[in-house]
Amino acid sequence: MTDKKNIDSDEEKELQEEQIESEINSNNKTETENEEVSEPLNEQSELEKIEEKFLRSQAELQNLRRISQNELAKARLYGSENLVKDLIPSIDNLFRTLDNQDIENKTVPSEGIELIVRELISALEKNGISVIDPKGKEFNPNEHEALSVTENNKEKPNIVLEVFQKGFKFKDRVIKPAMVVVNKK
């Protein structure tokens, strides 16, 4: 009987060992499965990160293109601004010559200068440049520079009484403000 008990207990031990082994194997399988599940999740999250970086890069590229197109458009619009700045002193001198001429004894050269000034102004206006001549108009600090202020009771306050130098505007930019005398408020 003892032999039978020993055999039974051996069998039980074997059964218990098999159960433990099967539990260990099942735990190992679960861990392996968890690892396999977590690996695709890691790969998926990495893929999402890469996709997000790609989309951000595309958006950044589009913004850069838009900015460069705006800069190019500004360069086209205002590209000749330096040329205009270089021409303005000559035009100013022509205006001064006309202002200081003897009106009664108009000579051919002064009439020629007047013609040149009209042609230059016409050419500039064709290219988006306009003359700012504010005499009799309200003072605008964005387009005019007040050299002095005087009081004239016949005129309204803040009106330009005299223009020392005409100003110039290129499209919507003031290149040179008009130099003026303003009526006191």
Give a brief rundown of this model.
This protein is α+β, with helices and mostly antiparallel strands and 185 residues long. It contains 3 helices and 6 strands. The longest helix is centred in the N-terminal third of the chain and has 77 residues.
Keywords:
3-stranded mixed beta sheet; alpha+beta; rod-shaped; 3-stranded antiparallel beta sheet; 62% helix; Nucleotide Exchange Factor Grpe, Chain A, domain 2; 185 residues; 2 domains
**Which range best describes the helical content: under 10%, 10-25%, 25-40%, 40-55%, 55-70% or over 70%?**
55-70%
Q: Kindly report the average pLDDT value.
A: 80
C-alpha geometry? rod-shaped
Strand order of the largest sheet: 1-4-5
Please indicate the percent range of residues in DSSP E strands (runs of 2 or more). 15-25%
Topology pattern, helix = H, strand = E: HHHEEEEEE
Number of domains: 2
- Uncertain ranges: none
The CATH architecture of the largest domain is Roll
Distance between the termini: 131 Å
Structural class estimated from helices and strands:
alpha+beta
CATH T-level topology of the largest domain: Nucleotide Exchange Factor Grpe, Chain A, domain 2
Top-tier CATH class of the largest domain: Mainly Beta
Number of strands: 6
Query: What radius of gyration results from the CA coordinates?
Result: 45 Å
Biggest sheet statistics: 3 strands, antiparallel
CATH superfamily of the largest domain: Head domain of nucleotide exchange factor GrpE
Total number of helical segments?
3
